[in-house]
Records
---
Amino acid sequence: MEGNTAPDPAIHRMLHPRSIAILGASNDPLKLSGRAIALMKRFGYTGRLLPINPAREQVQGLPAHPRLAEVDGEIDLAMITLPADQVVEAVRDCAQRGVPAAIVGAAGFAELDEQGALLQQQLVDVAAETGTRLLGPNCLGMFSLRDKAMATFTSAMDGDFTPREGPLAFVSQSGAFGTFIFSAAQHAGIGISHFLNTGNEADLSVAELLGGLVELDEVHALMAYLEGVHDGPELLAVARRAHELDKPILAVKVGRSDAGARAAASHTASLAGEDAVFDGVVRQFGVVRADGMDQLLGAAMIFAGGRRARGEQLTTLSLSGGAGVLMADAASRHGLDVAAWEPEWQHRMAEVIPAFGSPRNPVDLTANLISDPGMLRRALQIAVEHPGSDLIAVLLGNADHAADELIGAIEHAYRSTDRPLVVVWTGGSGRPRERLRELGIPCFTDPGRAAAALGALAGYSLRPAPPSPQRPPDVDHKVVRAILCEARDHGRRHLDEHESSRLIAAYGVPCAGAFTAKDPHGAVAAARELGAPVAVKVLSRSIGHKSDVGGVRLGLRTDAEVRSAAEDLMDLEPDVRLLVQRMSTGTELIVGIKRDPAFGPVVVVGLGGVLVEVLADSRAGVVPLDAASAKRLLTSLRGSGIFAGIRGQAPRDLDAAADAVARVSWLAHDLADELEELDVNPLLVDDRGVVAVDCLAVLR
Amino acid sequence: MEGNTAPDPAIHRMLHPRSIAILGASNDPLKLSGRAIALMKRFGYTGRLLPINPAREQVQGLPAHPRLAEVDGEIDLAMITLPADQVVEAVRDCAQRGVPAAIVGAAGFAELDEQGALLQQQLVDVAAETGTRLLGPNCLGMFSLRDKAMATFTSAMDGDFTPREGPLAFVSQSGAFGTFIFSAAQHAGIGISHFLNTGNEADLSVAELLGGLVELDEVHALMAYLEGVHDGPELLAVARRAHELDKPILAVKVGRSDAGARAAASHTASLAGEDAVFDGVVRQFGVVRADGMDQLLGAAMIFAGGRRARGEQLTTLSLSGGAGVLMADAASRHGLDVAAWEPEWQHRMAEVIPAFGSPRNPVDLTANLISDPGMLRRALQIAVEHPGSDLIAVLLGNADHAADELIGAIEHAYRSTDRPLVVVWTGGSGRPRERLRELGIPCFTDPGRAAAALGALAGYSLRPAPPSPQRPPDVDHKVVRAILCEARDHGRRHLDEHESSRLIAAYGVPCAGAFTAKDPHGAVAAARELGAPVAVKVLSRSIGHKSDVGGVRLGLRTDAEVRSAAEDLMDLEPDVRLLVQRMSTGTELIVGIKRDPAFGPVVVVGLGGVLVEVLADSRAGVVPLDAASAKRLLTSLRGSGIFAGIRGQAPRDLDAAADAVARVSWLAHDLADELEELDVNPLLVDDRGVVAVDCLAVLR
């Protein structure tokens, strides 16, 4: 389920405010309540800056108003620098004055204690009641570098720091770490358009702000630092919109490991959510997920250039053969292809490099490059012309004295192509790196980090479209309603295997032929109808129960075997009912529906049998899924090699499996309010189709 | 098989040369043949510097000798800066003059063309003939910073660069990339004792030089950059010695991926070798393998401190909760444990941090730390006292203005404990990082890189001892000789299944009971003797053949089934012989022997059945292995969860499996000259032991 895509106009005004009122503005530029004004004076805010302070006529040399109500003209944004207990009242003032959005910097809300949580609830209520949008509380505020709107008390600008404007917008849940990332990004030459810190997210979430930022022309890529996801649907909506606009979202989300998730849960009021679900969203919607700050900044550097890769083939030119090999290793790890060039292109390259170099790719220019830097221009010319060079990396090091000519060659090549080209310049004074970054050419110090960034760029460039699921036309809604009504009427939350199978069968998922039976006689009749071999199972309404009590008999071939099994099972419990089912074979899949706190119902797929126990391997996707996305979920399983058909088997019918998963996802979508969870285990897939052999559903 | 452990005295003299002769010394300090003298003059070489030049009386102000023969006194090292075609003669001069070691800088040998390869062979020959040890050719030479012996023409010292001496020695096969790594290391504040570039390795290899360096008191850790391994046994020997001395070897070896290995093969005369074997050596011998330069330098920074971890438990103190969670994520990825503290320790921590922080671990000190930097001293005091804090990380950022007090607190804590303590200081001016590094305290910019380094440190600190295998006392060498003689007498390289099984049985590996049979009658008799169920197989002398021709019948229970199967199989080929074998069950392992170009015979283990096809998962180890190492090989398989016993099975008898692997490794060791390869597939392991069900061996 996805959220709204049209951003609130209040967010647009906040992102480029023509006027900012500072409530509680201090005359002291070093105080938290004085910093924003000091910053805006220092950098030259282009709009109207309106200090509000009932005790002073002037604040830091600017005329002050005693109250918001007394300010003339439109106010796009209020920054409330008052203590926590005065904030709710201040928001009311903003609403009354028609200010569409306010920043609440103060701490002392949900992050502090229960009383703070109550105060935060009041903030939530007043925002909902008045429609005034809130950033925070417990946040550093925001800034927009184009208009020098520095509605923040961040320390990131301390000293003689001059921020570098650029095409990346950055939204961080964390103030402190967000600031560090901002500083490190600027140090790495990455220009930023906006920085916003959401803090406790009483109202505006990271996702909703990204939704506003993605619409801005000057923003070409978005960075997000998340500790948890509050509004999954909104995140899906912005991811879809970002895909449409071809503006990548680069996200770090902490809590990836179990240890991290436990720590995240203790750290914020955030729900860490199930990280696997977030990962599924990332895969489905083309979000670029970074492991940490280094990867985030590496990706930012390369995405800032705005180029896209046409394929995954990397050409590397290196002045050290070993470095080229190291790059090939790292590139493979990150999904890139480092194939040798075609003989005719090798031949061309061989003409411009020394005989003891290598023209294959990675191209080894040899250390002769230092004494003959012109070689780089000639080699790059060929690399740029080579049609298979989807991405190009140049690996250099030290060589400060030859830097001018080398950089000239790189710049010339960079301008002559629209393909991604990066430089790895290891060691040396660092001045060549700075110069390249000034020229807008991504430059790294380490081949591994460059490879990670190039891999992210290729992955994004070649991303599949987000799911565009089509509702299956053949769902038997009458059956679905009947099963749910029957259970509800009897106050049952657990559907038995027969009911659960009929539920998915109503959504078009093939189920193993089966009949219920009340006694051994009925079981034998059912078995005859189905044909041997059959399974006889206790019909249970609690997941897992029937195996625990030994309530399953498999591979029964004769009447006598069926009768004997049925008799045994009927002895297990009073009033037991039996399910007689045709036996099937195939590769075992598990398909389930779970509820995620942030994203609602999700489909989880995994391999069954031995593999699930050994690999603990599963993938999650938000619903509904189209068949293409469902197929990607399945093929992204670590053990997906099994689908090729092992030990001489024909390939498994992946299309049928994907279709079944997509149908289950529609069931999850349609019954979001009714269904708590569902497990198909196993769904058997062979070379000609799928069949669900066991299914249990639990209602909410 | 391991090499010699006593380093050649010539290497020792080269590593601390009291006198260096420069053959072909140029008066021009900018020429390659003049650079070494210029560098030694600039840094003040502590020994005798002896330019050899028949055309000049003085070289760069130093008295020159026309010929080596005319120099008085001992000469520890010669640096030959002559063109390739004069090098062999110069080495002869060195030998005649009693110079134990010479550096050959010139290119134009095996890296160039076939003629160069011939010239290199002459070098190899003259080194072997005279005993003069050679570094190179095609190398940058070496330097030792303690004595300022700069026998190198590296450009790494260009400009006003002053090298930083320290406890890490670095040997690189690559000149260019080695130089970049050296420069980057120095830039990161990592002090170096020696740098050596081995180039074409006509004589001295990385391993042998590490063997010399590891004995030096001032060297506490070794770094190696490898493009291929030339002498595996020597590397094992130095790894074992380094383990004894507790001096870690930090290694980057390129060619890890298939693409990289292909590229490496094209790049150097090096054999990239099978990377999996190198990885096995790393695991067995406690070498720290880094993925690339970043990881290498991160590890170097932390190992330079010399501290060791007592366990894997990481305590993190952070001024941003989110950064702490990110660190927990990364730490888990690198094998560290980030458990919450015990309640009483949380209680102590809670007393010194704000109420909205977290005392659990990761400890969230909150951004209040900026205004109250004294908090860090109090919190670190508790962290250092906490007995479970095996490793400690402090996460800070920006905060230049509070840096002095924060650094003071960190230094105080660092000095008060012998546990590893690192700082991650993100963003800001970089000056705090420099200051911390000056104090010898490892400092990173990114939590992820710090976690990788801490993980490497913990892994090394807790490394198992290298294998100390005990020869199994019960090997039946008579049987082994008989089988080999029989095959050799008949000119056969392929042993059949029965012979191969008897071979491993002679080494004490349990094999499934089996008899050979010449006809159906014999097969039935054998089956009766063995007890049902049995398998009947064609006895084949080529691997894979018997399955291809359908020569295996399984699960035969009755005389009639055995007879019929035997009759069918005898029709397959003329003169076919049969093997009748007792059927066994269990989890399938594959155990094999292969030959590695660098390390000789190696044992390869993997999971069989479905898992091998889906996971393509195997591990290699050099032979012989002890049972503990064999067990680690097995448990390091990605699918090793299967040993716990799945689907209600009892745990598999890993000790029996490890014993079998160790016995196979002894077979590989003892028959290194006779055996080409051997495959046990499968070795079945259940809860009570192992049994080899199929085995085929090929002789050399």
---
Amino acid sequence: MKTPRTLLISCALHLAFSSLGHADEIIFSTSAGDVALSSVANNLEYPWSLAFLPSGEMLVSERPGRLRLVRNGRMSPPIGGLPAIFAKGQSGLLDVVVARDFTHSRIIYFCYGEGADGGARLAVARARLLADESPRLDHVETIFHQIGPVTRGLAIINIGCRIVEAEDGNLFVTLGDHAANSRQALPAQSLDNHLGKIIRIRPDGTSPPDNPFLGTHDALPEIWAFGLRNPEGLAFNPATGELWEQEHGPMGGDEINIISRGNNYGWPLVSYGRNYDGSPVGDGKQKGPGLVDPIWYWAPSLAASGMMFYTGNLFPGWKGSLFNGGLKSKLLSRLVLDGHRVVSDERMLEGLNERIRDVRQGPDGAIYLLTDNKEGRILRMAPRKG
Amino acid sequence: MKTPRTLLISCALHLAFSSLGHADEIIFSTSAGDVALSSVANNLEYPWSLAFLPSGEMLVSERPGRLRLVRNGRMSPPIGGLPAIFAKGQSGLLDVVVARDFTHSRIIYFCYGEGADGGARLAVARARLLADESPRLDHVETIFHQIGPVTRGLAIINIGCRIVEAEDGNLFVTLGDHAANSRQALPAQSLDNHLGKIIRIRPDGTSPPDNPFLGTHDALPEIWAFGLRNPEGLAFNPATGELWEQEHGPMGGDEINIISRGNNYGWPLVSYGRNYDGSPVGDGKQKGPGLVDPIWYWAPSLAASGMMFYTGNLFPGWKGSLFNGGLKSKLLSRLVLDGHRVVSDERMLEGLNERIRDVRQGPDGAIYLLTDNKEGRILRMAPRKG
């Protein structure tokens, strides 16, 4: 029998671990006491999204275009049946979610990049997952194709994308601005395209009749909210029912927004952040007429990706907290909420030295993380035993 | 001519510098661009408080019981005329403030520990500062003596103390709980003593007639608010006129409170933090009947000391922000405010590796810091030139 080894890491020391490597567990000190991080799966190439099936099995996407099932700690081969995926820059296979009625319908949704005009356009697909001995997809159907000025010249960055399913079965999908805003054009502020938007679509991709811009000239019917940059987190707040969004902003401008029907979140007219060359964004103001302010921003930036409201029992003191993954910052941010107010920001896992792409709650109440590496992994965080 | 040398420190690297040492400036990257830290005065033994005179000269207290004037970058010898100061543990010469009418009155106030029953009791004194060629004190008068169970057995910690002068000339003074709360007694919750309180006194130490507990049986007339632990920051919010307090709490429980007449801030019945042995504080709840919640807390703790609302022109983007010094955390926290909401917490100067005891705004709009060391110093933070 293998003897588990344990490494104790102090946040304050900021020790650098490039991987879990030789330890079975890493211990971190947090406001909930010591927590243990253990590796659930290894050797995932830039894993992007983690979704739990009702069975407790996990679906995990890898950005280069693979989807796998993790069952009893073992990872399946890539699941066949995916559409053609354009994997370049930040484009590839991105978010994956499991429908509420999965047990009966076997439906999953996923978001991916399609090659078009030499650039990447996002698309959303629906499929049935047959998860018996060898999992495979069936009835794969692309229900949404992004429209917008995404062309050969653009760097393939600021893609988005996250999907959440509302209680009524409609889907909210975040779509990044593809860094397409310029002096000449501000597509994130224009309703004739899908860049820098959150859309709301039915499970078949059509637009619900109460979408806000259905009657607006030149506006695309799927749009629910606009003026966004690179939203890589989206979740319903279980305490309020509101849709909250995490925005991967410019330097010093990662934000938490509360998304409401038809609202404009200001990008790139206003931002708390600055461009990466240090220049101000837009007119440099933080508020503008008709624009909705974030309720929180990180300075310096998290380089945020992945967002989850914690509701489990394994960390009772963390119920209602909003967890956020950090890429460049290599940490996990726990925002403590009092309604729409953030009253604390606990930054944990400093010293793990891993880019965090996604954070999800498991059915066991543990917190699961994806690390953004060529040799990425699924980590499970739980209270330290004993 | 000496050539200035410059060190560039990245926050992300968390490099450890034990002192400014051989560099004339240290550069840090912040949301306001690069800032330069330079040393204004060195070789101060545990400097505690910094106060500017209308002339731009600075008074600086050293905890072992010295007060000095800094004039044109040169430090005076210890100013004579201080009362007997009990310097042990966290007791000694603490806060010093300059009266609003100093130009005419020459009045300063300071807070210090008196030896009593083998422990430390806080006292507040008023004096006239004669600051000609050789500065000295005159008309020194102790206007307040702390009452409370401060005895030989207690460790000399959680002392407080900060003083602010209101526009009407009355003084608000924070007084720590001396870690005197126990299973047997909760002095911070009792009005018959001055532990864990904010008091309000006239310049002569008497109680204004509208103090909240003047008519209350067994209550001390100076008390303005109670239920505090170790308040080491106090300032009026210039945007609202409210008195804000920074609480050096237990582990994970450093807080920002808005202080109102007669309120109970809950210590040690409730706290977001935990005792340093990991056990919960009080009943572990975060809210209680009749208790006022903080608007913010830090997790992990800053080990906060020194608080300042920035109103200067040197950092236009930081106007209205609330700066907080960190001792154990060795950083400076800038809270961005939207009324009573904190919308961001920028943590800067990580990598300086200095405990920060006090933070003040200079008449030049620069930000001045005191480092908490046997060889402490006054640091000036300003935008990097060129």
